[in-house]
Amino acid sequence: MCRYVCDFLVNLSPHDVRATLKKLVEGCGLETVYDIEDYLMAREIPGRVSFAKLVTAEVLIDITTATQSAVKLSFVVKNEELPLNRHNHCRQVFDLLRLTITQNYDWQPISNL
Questions:
Q1: What secondary structure, in 3-state letters, does the chain show?
Q2: What pLDDT does 113 receive?
Q3: Strand pairing partners for 73?
Q4: What are the φ and ψ backbone dihedral angles of 72, each rounded to 5 degrees?
Q5: 34 near 61, Cβ under 8 Å?
Q6: Tens digits of per-residue pLDDT, 13-40?
Q7: Could you tell me if 77 and 30 are in contact, meaning their C-beta atoms sit under 8 angstroms apart?
Q8: What's the pTM?
Q9: What pLDDT, in 10s, does the model give residues 56-113?
Q10: Which of 40, 55, 68, 95 allows an S-S link to 59, with CB 3.0 to 4.6 Å?
């Protein structure tokens, strides 16, 4: 199973971050499946790749340490594909997500794996 994780410090209020996250995942070709106050799950739309390669992205919104102007987000991008090569489909979606964040949002990375 492939699994990639990264954390960002976001300069938004906890109330505004969910709408921004929905736009972000849609821009990366994912659809929102589940959305609650501190968690968002999005998945890749079936039909483009085999079932085992379909990517799921989870975003954990740390509302316990959030302030009115900053919140920590933890992204987990995963699928059932075995990571037999370094540049697998899951890694490509993860890299697209990070690139989209870097180019379109003023979010500070906390850690990247």
A1: CEEEEEEEEECCCHHHHHHHHHHHHHHCCEEEEEEECCEEEEEECCCCCCHHHCCEEEEEEECCCCCCCCEEEEEEEEECCCCCCCCCHHHHHHHHHHHHHHHHCCCEEEEEC
A2: 43
A3: 8, 61
A4: -95, 135
A5: no
A6: 878 898 999 999 999 999 999 999 899 9
A7: no
A8: 0.88
A9: 999 999 988 888 888 999 999 999 988 888 889 999 999 999 999 999 888 888 854 4
A10: 40
Token representation of residue 72: 């920590």
- Amino acid occupying residue 69: S
- Locate 104 and state its tokens: 């379109």
CB 31 within 8 A of CB 42: yes
Q: What are all long-range contacts of 48-54, with beta carbons under 8 Å and residues at least 24 apart?
A: 49/89, 51/80, 52/79, 52/80, 52/81, 53/79, 53/80, 53/81, 53/89, 53/90, 54/79, 54/80
Q: What pLDDT sits at residue 33? A: 95
Alpha carbon distance 39, 57 (integer Å): 11
